[in-house]
Design goal:
CATH superfamily: Phosphoenolpyruvate-binding domains
Helix content: 40-55%
CATH topology: TIM Barrel
Strand content: 5-15%
Structural class: alpha/beta
Strand order of the largest sheet: 1-2-3-4-5-6-7-8
Largest sheet: 8 strands, parallel, barrel
Number of domains: 1
């Protein structure tokens, strides 16, 4: 079974976590929400290190996930599948479908993180069900899959509330957790400031999560709606980042083109539902 480059990059980020942001080349990705294999394949050739297949906040189902994984497989990018919930059956199905990197949303404590890890591991380390024939083992052609799979699955735990950030040291200490990931949108909502990610108190909590993750010896990622927002997160010390989504970039650029061709200003284009602000409104729901 071949080694997992995304998992290796996370380990490299962990080794570099205490270093200053300057001079580092963090992993960069984007969100996939359109369920369009052609879009996934195209973005995979655009320089992104990873692409997030979002099964939580989009209608992407298991069959569509397999199509997206196949499309990404022919590109330099690595897929990261965010499942809809921390559920054993969902995990088993996406791993058998070929996912090697799984993001678990809305994890609140160490017990939930430990359960997530166990769902990705075959016994005796975990509770993943065993099947002889599935896409993950290349239909049985990877002869050492059962022996090596436990070591090649990357587990990313998403923190989305102040309570989860308070418990970050305990969550980060769970064996098998490769990285943490902060969800700014849900964090702002949980703090009573829904949609106001730029609120000073929300930003302070986002910055704190990066500091606490490094103190706990774990890399941490985050997603931002646009490059300027991502730059701020990198200044906070985040080790890997995603920017916008396929649909946000599509609608944002489309709105700009429509406004330009019609001779409208960017402001009037935004009021019509497009424009440069579409990336924030149409981006990932975090």
């Amino acid at each position: 079974m071949e080694s997992n480059p995304f998992k290796s990059r996370l380990a490299d980020a962990l080794a570099a976590a205490p270093a200053a942001t300057a001079g580092r080349a963090p992993m960069l990705g984007t969100w996939l929400m359109s369920a369009a294999p052609a879009a996934a394949e195209a973005l995979g050739h655009c320089g992104f290190d990873f692409l997030v297949v979002d099964m939580e906040h989009s209608p992407i189902d298991l069959g569509e996930t397999i199509g997206l994984l196949r499309a990404i497989a022919g590109t330099p990018s690595e897929p990261l599948v965010r499942i809809a919930w921390n559920d054993q059956v969902l995990v088993k199905r996406v791993l058998d479908a070929g996912a090697r990197n799984v993001m678990f949303p809305f994890v609140q404590n160490a017990d939930e993180a430990a359960a997530a890890v166990s769902y990705t591991r075959y016994p005796p380390q975990g509770v993943r069900g065993v099947a002889a024939m599935h896409r993950g083992s290349r239909y049985g052609q990877v002869k050492d899959y059962l022996r090596r799979a436990n070591d090649q699955i990357a587990v990313v735990i998403q923190l989305e509330t102040p309570e989860a950030i308070e418990r970050l040291p305990a969550i980060a200490a769970v064996p098998g957790v490769d990285s943490l990931f902060l969800g700014p949108g849900d964090l702002s909502a949980a703090m009573g400031r829904i949609g106001a990610i730029g609120d000073p108190e929300v930003q302070a909590m986002i910055a704190r999560a990066a500091r606490d993750a490094h103190a706990a010896g774990r890399p941490i990622g985050i997603v931002g709606a646009h490059p300027a927002q991502v730059a701020t997160y990198l200044e906070y010390g985040y080790d890997w980042v995603a920017v916008a989504s396929d649909l946000a970039m599509l609608t944002g650029r489309a709105g700009e083109f429509v406004a330009a061709v019609r001779g409208q200003s960017a402001v009037s284009g935004q009021s019509a539902g497009g424009g440069s602000n579409a990336g924030a409104a149409g981006g990932p729901a975090y």
